[in-house]
Design goal:
The complex is a heterodimer of chains A (195) and B (330). With 195 residues, chain A is mainly α. Chain A has helices at residues 3-19, 21-31, 36-53, 59-73, 78-93, 101-119, 129-138, 143-155, 180-194. The radius of gyration of chain A is 15 Å and the shape is globular. Chain B has 330 residues and is of the alpha/beta class. Helix content of chain B is 32%, strand content 24%. Chain B has helices at 11-22, 83-93, 107-122, 152-165, 170-182, 231-245, 264-280, 311-318; strands spanning 26-29, 34-37, 47-54, 71-77, 99-104, 127-132, 184-190, 210-213, 224-227, 251-258, 284-291, 301-308, 321-322, 327-328. In chain B, helix 4 (152-165) runs antiparallel to helix 5 (170-182) and helix 6 crosses helix 7 (264-280). Chains A and B meet through helix 2, helix 3, helix 4 and helix 5 of A and strand 4 and helix 3 of B.
């Protein structure tokens, strides 16, 4: 997986976020504050501009620029959380021209740990971790398996009671709604499969 | 959606441009989204920075000025600002005595301020952060992100701001901010949902006789849904929730806060009930605010925030203040 692969991935995420913007916002309307789709769209649009403005030379540069831009532009909880995900991926893959699936899987494991630490969230809290953690487990096997695991993980958040983030304020009322963060995370991982 | 705006994407910058035009006491950096005192940092004074999503006006930018904040960082509507804004604001207000970050307990605000504080510390700035978490509707903190920061943010900004103005050191100002938060509690009720401009429709649907109990300040639904009832009962419900958490006694500062679309007339109806409730409990509302101070766009409803006062807190509350949103004694 080379620089072009990672650029295709980020471009696919940007496109998918734009297409699913209203769906993500609707999910957030139910148990949050109705801005998840709009925030991610704004963030990845800024990423698109940043990557076009200064074309990255390595996979790590693609990932780090993406992460830094998200932290600087998105705000909310998803900015720092997604930003940290991509920054950690960038740091972990190292300064190389090609990334093996093995290295990418390890980088995702480190990114998962970093995001969990920043958000102090565990699996089962009804957050993006519920899509990311199962995907990371399958990443060594194949990107398809990882995408499926993320998708299933996001769907499995519906019956959960939120323990982190804004949905947690709803207590029992958060049950019965799919988590917007887990949904966008599944979309991010799925775009990797398609890149 | 009928809103007095130009374009959905320009709501925040247009608001800032309007504030800049209306209040020459402010220096508004529209591009970087920072609101500062026009006079610049006060040498030797602790700087106070707060920020959060837009849509809560006058919080926070309306509380920049003598006796309260030195800077505010407005984010997108209901979305926390980004670390760049907080870093720039922190640098701009540092008068050599360090900077206090006043952070409402919402995951986004906490994460972004945390990153900003770390980066500021890397560059050698002295920054202490204080979390405001006054909302009694959120109870079991192991199952939630903790209590939300709502109306007490204004109390913290006012009283910590007064102490900073009197020349107290950073540690003392931070300790005062924590004391105010410890003594403050809030409970909010919504009669209608608000409409986020970028969304274009109400955040949730409420029937004509339904209300949301235990709301925060981001237009989200509350802890439960209930039936509409008269002001006396609604106030009792909110005050009981506060009293059960931190019993009323002695002198009490009360804010009856409108969420954005509740007439002042009704807020006064509520305040009369609050005053009577406190008398019943043997406490006295010695200071009060009645009006729209910490809002949720065009949501109808109200929130009550109380703070148990002592002589020191009362004198800090009475200390002169001169901001667009709060002004007395000067």
């Amino acid at each position: 997986m080379d620089t072009a692969f990672f650029l295709r991935w980020i471009a696919a995420v940007t496109e998918r976020v734009r297409a699913d913007r209203d769906h993500l916002t609707d999910l957030d309307r139910a148990i949050g504050d109705a801005d998840h789709g709009a925030n991610l769209d704004r963030g990845f649009t800024a990423v698109e501009e940043a990557l076009a403005g200064k074309p990255p030379q390595t996979p790590a540069e693609v990932l780090t620029t993406t992460g830094n831009t998200l932290i600087r532009k998105v705000g909310g909880a998803s900015g720092p959380l997604y930003g940290t995900l991509f920054r950690t991926l960038g740091r972990s893959v190292g300064d190389v021209a090609e990334v093996s699936q093995e290295v990418l899987a390890e980088a995702f494991a480190q990114a998962l740990a970093a995001v969990m630490k920043l958000g102090s969230a565990q699996e089962g809290d009804k957050t993006m971790i519920d899509a990311l953690a199962p995907a990371v487990q399958k990443m060594r096997a194949s990107l398809e398996a990882a995408a499926q695991a993320a998708h299933d993980g996001a769907r499995a958040t519906t019956p959960m009671r939120a323990r982190k983030g804004r949905a947690s304020y709803l207590g029992e009322r958060s049950i019965g709604h799919q988590d917007p963060g887990a949904t966008s995370m599944a979309l991010v991982i799925d775009a990797l499969r398609a890149a | 959606m009928k809103k007095l705006i130009n374009a959905v994407g320009d709501v925040v910058p247009d608001t800032l441009r309007g504030m800049a035009a209306a209040h020459p006491s402010l220096r508004v950096d529209v591009e970087n989204r920072i609101v500062l005192r026009a006079a610049g940092p006060t040498p030797g004074k602790v700087g106070l920075v707060s920020g959060g999503g837009s849509g809560h006006e006058p919080l926070h930018a309306g509380f920049v000025g003598y006796g309260m904040l030195d800077a505010a960082c407005p984010g997108e509507v209901f979305t926390s600002p980004v670390p760049d804004q907080m870093i720039e604001a922190t640098k701009a207000v540092d008068g050599g005595a360090g900077v206090l970050h006043i952070v409402k307990n919402y995951t986004g605000d906490v994460l972004n301020f945390e990153m900003a504080a770390e980066l500021c510390a890397d560059e050698g700035a002295r920054v202490v952060s204080v979390l405001v978490d006054d909302d009694v509707a959120v109870q079991d903190s192991t199952y939630t992100a903790g209590r939300r920061g709502t109306g007490a943010t204004l109390f913290v900004e006012k009283m910590a701001g007064a102490l900073a103005e009197q020349g107290a050191p950073l540690e003392a100002v931070a300790a005062m901010a924590r004391t105010v938060d410890d003594r403050s509690r809030s409970f909010g009720v919504a009669f209608s949902a608000c409409t986020v401009p970028a969304v274009g429709k109400p955040t949730f649907d409420l029937g004509p006789t339904e209300i949301e109990l235990g709301i925060g300040i981001h237009g989200e639904p509350g802890r439960s849904r209930g039936g509409f009832r008269e002001a006396r009962e609604l106030v009792r419900l909110a005050m009981d929730a506060i009293d059960a958490d931190l019993p009323f006694s002695g002198d009490v500062l009360v804010m009856v806060n409108g969420m954005g679309a509740t007439p002042l007339m009704e807020l006064y109806v509520a305040y009369g009930e609050v005053d009577a409730y406190l008398r019943e409990k043997g406490a006295t509302a010695t200071r009060c605010l009645v009006g729209n101070y910490v809002t949720s766009l065009d949501m109808a409803g109200f929130a009550i925030t109380t703070c148990l006062l002592d002589a020191e807190l009362t004198s800090l509350w009475d200390h002169p203040v001169e901001t667009p949103g709060l002004r007395w004694g000067r």
